[in-house]
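One-letter codes give the sequence; the fold follows as tokens. An example follows:
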Amino acid sequence: MNKKDVLSTIWVFVTINYLYCDLIGLMDASLLKQYLTGQVEGMTISREFLLYAGILMEIPISMILLSKILPDKANAWANISASLVKTLVMVATLFMGTPTIYYLFFAVIEISTTIFVFVYALQWLKTLRVSSPIAA
């Protein structure tokens, strides 16, 4: 499997984990009641909040495609950037409210996966630099 296929597949994997974790959260009666009031763990779920959440989810969704079609160097940089953002956001969410046991379960998988993407893409970038001819 080439690096583009590996990265695209990993983004599919982590995106499904993000979505399924959110779906399970809707099955949690105490959280569902909060969602219906528009206040979850002290956060207001406004339209702006939902827009920002959508933008954050678009990152891994778009990386599924971008990992397949971008040129190698841009691809590595996009994966490094996207994985860094998603890792930092996921770590930050652990300090918002009180995470449930199922949220912690998914968070460990998601953070581990985006760290893997970061390291994999960084190593790929290093090999691209070594194999690229040096401009005179």
About this structure: The longest strand covers residues 39-40. Residues 3-131 form one domain.
